Every structure is written in C-alpha cells, then in structure tokens.
Structure prediction request, 136 residues.
Amino acid sequence: MRSLALVSMMVMGFSMAAPHNALACSLSDRQLTIQLDQRSAELGAQNARILAEWFIQWRDGLGIESLIVVAPAAKSHKKIADERLKNVSRIFEELNTGKAPIAYEVELRSDGFPDLKYLNSLDVSVQPACIKSGTC
Prediction:
C-alpha cells in the first residue's frame, strides 16, 4: 500500500513539473472542426483566431510534422470550399515558420447531400512532430 502511495506521489510530481503548454497527443486533440456560415467563404474573426491559436499551440508545443485542411462541399459549391481553403492558407502560411507541409483538399459530396452542418465546416488535422521522433 505504501508503494502505491509513493508511485501516486511521483506521478503527481511529474505531472506538476510538465510544461503548461504541453499538448496531449490523442486523436481528438489532433483534430479541429470549425463551423462556418452557410454558403459563405468568410471565416470570421472568431474562427480565424481559433485556427491561429490552435496552429500556434501545436507549432510551439509538440511541433508540426504536417497538416491537412479539408473543406467538405456539395459539387455545386466547390468554389466556396476552394475560397475557404484559400482563407485558411493565408492564416497558416504566415504562422508556418517551420515550413511544415500543409495539404488543402475539397471533399466533394453530391448536390442534395443532407448534412448541411458538415458541408459548412472545415476540418483540420495535425501530424505532430513528436510522432516521427517517437517522443509523444
């Protein structure tokens, strides 16, 4: 019982000594979904800030090996999705001081696709640098 208490105290001590900007490396932490206004390419100030802060947290935390940004779109709204990706690229390119590769993709769905919330979103996923080095 005493050894269990000792181990618990050690774990607690290590967790308190961990950097405050350290990120967990779970799948949910590596993905970000942003909701956008229907049929608008504009990100809005709040979403732009969320994207920038998320990117900086990864860049300055565990590091970024690569990113992918996906814009779902109905076929007839591909132009809007392309513009959304262009707007995100303007933010990320300024912040990408390490020059991590960033892929931008439109995920086309058929016109009449029923999930409008999905079609009016952006999904961003990071491959942290720590995965390559095995330090996650």
User: Anything to note?
Assistant: The two ends are 31 Å apart (CA to CA). The mean pLDDT is 83.
